[in-house]
Amino acid sequence: MKKRLSLLFMMVFLMAFALPVSAATKVYVNADVNLRKGPGVNYQIYTSVSEGTALKYLSKSKRDDRGVKWYKVSYKKKTLWVSSRYAKKVPQPVTSAKKRVVTKGRVNLRKGPGTGYKIVADVSKGSSLKYLNKTKTDKRGVKWYKVSFYGKKVWVSSKWCQFKNEDITMYVIAEDDVNLRKGPSLEYGKYTSVRKGTSMKYLGKVIKDDRNVKWYKVSYKGKSLWVSSLASHIK
Q1: Pick from 215, 211, 219: which is nearest to 227 by CA?
Q2: φ/ψ bin of 128: left (φ > 0), alpha (ψ from -120 to 50), beta (otherwise)
Q3: Which DSSP symbol is given to 76?
Q4: Among the three residues 133, 165, 197, which one is the final residue of a domain in this structure?
Q5: Residue 235 and residue 231: Cα distance in Å, rounded?
Q6: Which of 81, 88, 150, 179 is most deeply buried (CB count within 10 A of its CB)?
Q7: Measured between alpha carbons, how far is 179 from 226 in angstroms, rounded to an integer?
Q8: CB 213: neighbour CB atoms within 10 A?
Q9: Percent of the chain at pLDDT exceeding 90
Q10: One domain, residues 83 and 56
Q11: Which CATH number fits the domain that encloses residue 150?
């Protein structure tokens, strides 16, 4: 018995470290809907929100007397409830800032993570190189960063460079005449349409709908909208 309990404890312990940290979750409303002070239609209406509104999900759901699920959400710093009949819970992908490595002096770029590897090129102070999300430590305990240099994958010593977050503006290009919607699926209302070749600022979010189709969040004429990946691509 003790052996079984020890094994169970060990499995739970390992799972706690193995599982990824949960991404934040949003609730998107797919119709104009009331937000209430509790999980049911018998609770007082606090306010209403329009179709496409994104609400922060507070990790709690409850069912009312009719068996309808209600989501606990945050709206303008208020804790409220919205019916699942008019809203959809969508996990948000965890994103990390794109990083670049900036050199602090003239430095060699090598084929591998150490001074024993062949020099591919040298770059001057202030050179900005795309970091490829890989770091290794050599025998001397020095960290080396894997970077991209004119399409080649090379390594640079951490002694001669530092990280710098880079704000990269990306765009979504319409591959055909396409509708822009208030939310990430065909369930949401059409806001407008754009012509083939239209360029829209990408807002860094991708969500899959019930059909497993990706939708990109974009900015168009000051509005945050969604466009299907079936008729667009990120550039």
Answers
A1: 215
A2: beta
A3: T
A4: 165
A5: 13
A6: 81
A7: 9
A8: 14
A9: 38
A10: yes
A11: 2.30.30.40
pLDDT tens digits for range 178-211: 999 999 999 999 999 999 888 898 887 888 888 8
CA distances in angstroms from 102 to 106, 148, 165, listed in the order given: 11, 12, 10
Q: Which pTM does this prediction carry?
A: 0.43
Residues 150 and 185 in one domain: no
| 184 and 142, same domain (yes or no) | no
User: How many domains does the chain fold into?
Assistant: 3
Q: What is the dihedral of CA 203, 20, 97, 55, to 10 degrees?
A: 30
Q: Reduced to 3 states, what is the DSSP secondary structure of residue 75?
A: strand
Question: Domain range holding 63?
Answer: 21-91
Chain segment 73-88, per-residue pLDDT in tens: 999 889 999 999 988 8
Token pair of 14 as six digits: 């390992």
Letter for the amino acid at 79? T
pLDDT at 169: 61
